Amino acid sequence: MGPIEMLKSQFALLWRFLGFFQPPLLRLLHISVVGLVVLQVLTQLAGMSMTHAISGLVLSMLGLGLIALGLGTRGPRHYYPYLWGDMDQLKRDVAAIRSGKLIIAPRPKGLACVVQGLGMGALAMSMISGLWLFRSWQMGEISHAAATMHGIFVFLLVAYAVGHGGMAMGHFFFWKKAAAKK
Ligand code: HEM
Ligand code: HEM
User: What global pTM score does this model have?
Assistant: First the structure.
């Protein structure tokens, strides 16, 4: 297999793996948002301000879609169970991790979902502060408050992406290994 076919087949496998968790539209929005967040980091590092701002506007729409569809599909209690004092699954997951289990399946209202809820918050705040920064730039006076906020929330979002994305890639890897054994 050449490198292009290899990449294609890995992507097809990843799409199938994500399908265990997300219906097609949610999956499509999720993948688009992941790609756009990576693009935001790259355009910023490359100093491509104009591209960054325009793809930021696209990201803001798709990101809002991802958050709304996630909340609409699963309900807010799925991601924020602690607001209802509903912590049983969360406690079970933390206990499993403390007993040395590294791989725990994502369960509704569990640790993975609670982390996703916080990630949605970081994504929303990055987008809002980004839009605010963009607006201030349009008006001819860049807001330092917006720039500071944007920097902080983007940092939190990237930390989330590494943690949540890393765990998901870990699950993907073990799923592939288990599937290959069968
Ligand atoms: C959510 C993913 C995003 C990431 C990872 C990201 C990353 C960054 C970073 C690291 C900076 C530099 C901050 C600083 O120097 O203090 C920045 C600046 C900026 N961002 Fe974002 N951003 C994102 C989303 C957005 C969105 C949605 C918009 C809205 C259009 C936006 C508009 C801007 C603007 C106007 C600047 C300042 C101009 C510049 O330095 O290029 N960003 N972004
Ligand atoms: C910028 C990076 C990322 C963001 C902002 C993000 C955001 C989200 C959000 C908001 C959810 C909840 C939606 C739902 O309930 O299905 C979610 C779930 C999920 N994400 Fe991500 N994600 C990112 C990166 C990744 C990566 C790299 C992977 C690895 C392939 C991944 C795999 C998953 C999986 C498997 C779920 C569903 C897990 C479950 O049902 O509990 N994510 N993500």
Answer: 0.94
